[in-house]
Amino acid sequence: MVAPKKPNYEDCRQKRMEENRKRMEELNLTVLVQSLRKISSPKPAPMKKVNPTPRKPLDLSAVRRSNRVADKPPLNYKKGSIKLLGIRWREHASRRAEELRSTLQSDFRSFVRPMLQSHVSRGFSLSLPGWFCKSYLPKRDEIMTLVDEDGAEWQTKYHMKAFSGGWKQFAEDHELAYGDALVFQLIKPTVFKVYIIRVNQAEASEHA
User: Fold this and answer.
1) Helix (H, G, I), strand (E, B) or coil at 79
2) For the chain, which residues score pLDDT lower than 50?
3) What is the mean pLDDT of the chain?
């Protein structure tokens, strides 16, 4: 006797799917699922177009001026003229310092050092010319004495070819400014005579 053939897996799966489909139709589930899909995924609303508000051009014809200069005619400086004047005044101070240096005794070595911002307002450290340090100054750290034109003395530390500690006090006491030119004359191994040429003297002569 021949045994009956067993149904394979695919036939069973197809049969179950057909039975499930008929059951869903009887319960009207297909229509219900479709309606739920329409509700859960509404169409996005179209974006509204927004017209940008036009900006009014700035009126620069009446800019408010400071009370200190409101009653004065506007300045008519050419571009870069103030900067050029400052450079010219600093060069004038350095030139006068070189002229003064040339009149000093040649037995004592000297050099000119124009003042930068870092020398008189930030850092307060004054680097010295390398050639001068190598030839005439001590090879180690030393306390140097600065003597001004009135004979008053200040102590400053000489370190790594520069004046550091004590230089700030000298600069502040003499009200040194950016552009001043100083003549340093080595009158003893650790003593400098210092002559100050003011940059504002060049400015004053410019307006004289």
Assistant:
1) coil
2) 58, 60-82
3) 77
Total tally of structural domains belonging to the chain: 1
State the CATH number of the domain containing residue 113.
2.40.330.10
Question: What is the CB neighbour count within 10 angstroms for residue 24?
Answer: 14
pLDDT digits (tens, 9 = 90+) for 112-129: 999 999 899 877 899 999
- Residue 53's SS3 state is coil
* Residue at 71 is within a domain: no
CA 154/CA 142 separation, integer angstroms: 14
Q: Helix or strand or coil: residue 57?
A: coil
- Asked if the structure places residue 13 within a domain, the reply is no
Q: Are residues 156 and 166 in contact, defined by beta-carbon separation less than 8 angstroms? A: yes
Amino acid at 157: K
Q: Is the pTM of this model over 0.90?
A: no
